[in-house]
Amino acid sequence: MKPQWLLIDARTGLSESSGLLLGGLAHLHVLFGTSSEQSWQGLRLIIQRLGEERVLADKPQSECVLVQALVPENVEVSRLAAAQFTERARDEFSDHYYATDPEDPSEDRFWYVRDMEDDDAPHAPLSLSYQPKLSHFRVLDDVADELAELPEYRRLAQRISERFLRKGPQ
């Protein structure tokens, strides 16, 4: 087998497997979170590890994509939840991921504060609404067609693909 991608689903929270992946094994981290404070406490630790700690060691940040999971399907509630999550993501990544802008505008070693306005910046979350059918299934084939048709999952797949095309393996 010569797969182009190897996807590893580490269990929620900090564990031995997530520690291994955060140690540099993964080329891209897809971070899932919710609006809860507990979720942000865990995300902050991960963001610090992928960003701040690496910048302080003079290494580029690890690539990541942020996903707001379990967004309610109600339009008003989802709009409010997305706005709050986006604002919190901006604050957390600003404090714990992005490097200070360099004096030389051509410098491009890190994700800098100036990059925060990019649509595909690491802190710019993608939202996945709660889909009851996806909460319980026997085999992936039972939901594969639905996953392929949902626009929000297609956007996530596109963002992941673009990250690999943009930087490639580190």
Would you write up a description of this structure?
It is a single chain. This protein has helices spanning 16-25, 37-56, 75-96, 144-149, 151-167; strands at 29-33, 64-71, 126-129. The two termini are 21 Å apart. The chain has 170 residues and is mainly alpha-helical. Helix content is 44%, strand content 10%. The model has no long low-confidence stretch (mean pLDDT 89). The chain has 5 helices and 3 strands, in the order H-E-H-E-H-E-H-H. The chain has one domain (28-167).
Task: Provide a quick synopsis of the model.
By secondary structure, this protein is mainly α. It has helices at residues 16-25, 37-56, 75-96, 144-149, 151-167; strands at residues 29-33, 64-71, 126-129. It has one domain.
Q: Name the strands of the widest sheet in spatial order.
A: 1-2-3
Unreliable stretches covering 5 or more consecutive residues = none
Helix and strand sequence: HEHEHEHH
- Strand tally: 3
Count every helix, treating DSSP H or I runs of 4 or more residues as helices.
5
Give the biggest beta sheet: 3 strands, parallel
- Strand percentage lies at 5-15%
Averaged pLDDT: 89
Question: What does the radius of gyration come to?
Answer: 17 Å
